[in-house]
Amino acid sequence: MRVKVVCGGGGPAGLYLAILLKRQNPSHDITVHERNPEGSTYGWGVTYWRGLLDKLQEHDPATARAIEEASVRWSDGVAHVRDLTTRHHGDESFGIGRPRLLDLLAERARALGVRLEFESAITEPPAGADLVVAADGVHSAPRTRHAASFDTRIISGRNHCIWLGTTKVFDAFTFAFTETQHGWIWAYGYACSEVTGTCVVECSPETFTGLGLDRATEADGLALLEKLFAHVLDGHPLIGRPGAGWLNFRTLTNRTWHHGNLVLLGDAAHTTHYSIGAGTPSPWRTPCASPAVPHEHTGLSDALAAYERRRMAELLSVQSAARYSARWYENPPRYLHLPPHRMFALLGRRYSSRLPYVPPQLYYGLDKAAGRLQALHRFKRWLGPRAARALHARSSAHCG
């Protein structure tokens, strides 16, 4: 069935949905409206992991290949606490600059026949469209106009944070915790190209005002942060973006994701705390859940309801992890007194619903014991069949 789709928002979610719908049916009439000029974007780098790349490969190999080729990768995580450092080897992860990512998605969408309209925004569902997609972010104009129907709710986080660029190319995903006389301040750093990196800085409200970051000019604020994180920046500067200052992360939810022929996608539908690395990957997953739906249901309303049920169910565990991750960072002194390797281990367990209620040292010990027990069980499962075969072979030889 040929449908006319109008999408508001030319970010990763909107562009990738357009790509998948065109691959599903080349006759679909699809237009993506982006309010900003072509080539302009906010943000610095995007992180993702092998599992997501495999999902992209499944739905559109050409897009997956282009993104992987343009990405940098790492497998280590490094944590700096005061003057102590610990490094751990982990799963393969990837980083790509957001401008480069959007260029690749736009190029692929155009090649498939999607119309891209820049410096163009939609506020109301346009006449004649079968499906209108609001993929225009947290401040979505169509969703805001129908906020009562969507039952939109926004909760602001406690901590202050800022996204910055840097010429420092991190060789691992880097955590840096610095203690000041006004409390702790920390940064997450990762590479997004061969020549640039992203640095997200976060702190409590008390540290934010105590350091004077609430009153500092952009230049003075960057100079202070460069001084506080000099041990990981190695002399490289931090780079701000005009108009993009400090903010409090906002968790956005909606009771329903569709109203008439209008459907929410990506950050317009939901947000997840950036500390779990799901900001951009989550919108990528959302289109992956939707293209097959129109084939399985006869009416648009049924199709949108099925998409909503499926995606909301998938998000439950992610949103729970995001809540506990944000909570970990709202009380870092609870963990930063530990030896760095133990703190880093609990940083990796910050998604646990039990961690906030168990003393950190005790949780670490229990977690280590559970890990050894699981390793023992895995060894027994591996050893059992081999021991049985050896005993059978010996018995057979003896009987012979």
Describe the structure.
It contains 15 helices and 16 strands. It is an alpha/beta fold. It starts with a strand and ends with a helix. It is 43% helix and 24% strand. Helix 2 packs antiparallel against helix 3, helix 2 runs parallel beside helix 10 and helix 3 packs antiparallel against helix 4.
Write the layout of secondary structure elements.
Elements lengths: L3 E5 L3 H13 L4 E6 L10 E5 H10 L1 H9 L2 E10 L2 E14 H15 L2 E4 L12 E4 L6 H5 L1 H4 L1 E5 L3 E7 L6 E8 L2 E9 L5 E7 L1 H6 L7 H11 L1 H4 L4 E2 L10 E5 L3 E2 L2 E3 L16 H9 L3 H4 L3 H30 L3 H4 L3 H8 L12 H40 L1
Parallel strand pairs: 1-2, 1-7, 2-6, 4-10, 7-16
Antiparallel strand pairs: 3-5, 4-5, 8-14, 9-12, 9-13, 10-11, 11-12, 15-16
Helix pairs in contact: 1-4, 1-10, 2-3, 2-10, 3-4
Spatial extent as radius of gyration: 24 Å
The strands making up the biggest β-sheet line up spatially as 3-5-4-10-11-12-9-13
How would you name the oligomeric state of the polypeptide chains in this document? Answer: single chain
Helix tally equals: 15
Compute the separation of the termini in Å. Answer: 70 Å
Beta strand %: 15-25%
Q: Can you tell me the residue ranges where pLDDT is under 50 for at least 5 consecutive residues?
A: 291-297
How would you state the average pLDDT, rounded? 86
Characteristic key phrases:
400 residues, alpha/beta, six-stranded mixed β-sheet
Question: Quick summary of this structure?
Answer:
Helices cover 43% and strands 24% of the residues. With 400 residues, it is an alpha/beta fold.
